[in-house]
Structures are given as C-alpha cells and as structure tokens.
Amino acid sequence: MKHNIVIQYQTKPDATERNAELVQNVFREAAAAKPDVRYCVLRTADGTFFHLVSYETEEANEGLTGLPAFEAFVADGATRRTGPPQRAEVTVVGNYRMLAE
Fold this sequence. Notes:
This protein is an alpha+beta fold.
C-alpha cells in the first residue's frame, strides 16, 4: 500500500538555518544510500517546513528514517520547532511530474 505523508512544522527564527542544514545532510546520505522512498522538503520564508514523503512499505521508509543524518535531524527537533509537527497521510489529487506515478 502506498503511503503519502505530509509533515509540517515551523522553526524558531534562530534555528531555521540549522534545521535546513540538517535536512540537507539527510538528502546527502539518502543520495548515497538510495532508500526506496520519494522525499521532498519545502521551506517558506517564515521558517515553516513541509516534508513530503511517499513509500510503499515500512521497510522502505526505515531506509530513510534509519539514516544517521535523519536520526541527527530528529534528535533535537523539539528545540528547533515552535510546536509539535503536524503529520497527515494525504491522497494525491493531481500530480504533474512532481511525484512518481
């Protein structure tokens, strides 16, 4: 079963750049490890981050969440955010070349 997840949170102003650096570290490790997931992170000017992830199995998702850089990213996440992340499983309504079909 395909899972499409959106996770949204806002960072504290003094932690936004550090959060972005930690996310970029995850992408570097993912490029080397090649977990079987689709993953994208977007950031707005006010420090709100949107993580979009799509995967078929929990094992595939663990290929991303088990990366050392991902573990470092989540380790002190609460200290960088203004509140808890909002996580939702979503249904793709339309997709033009953004996500794999």
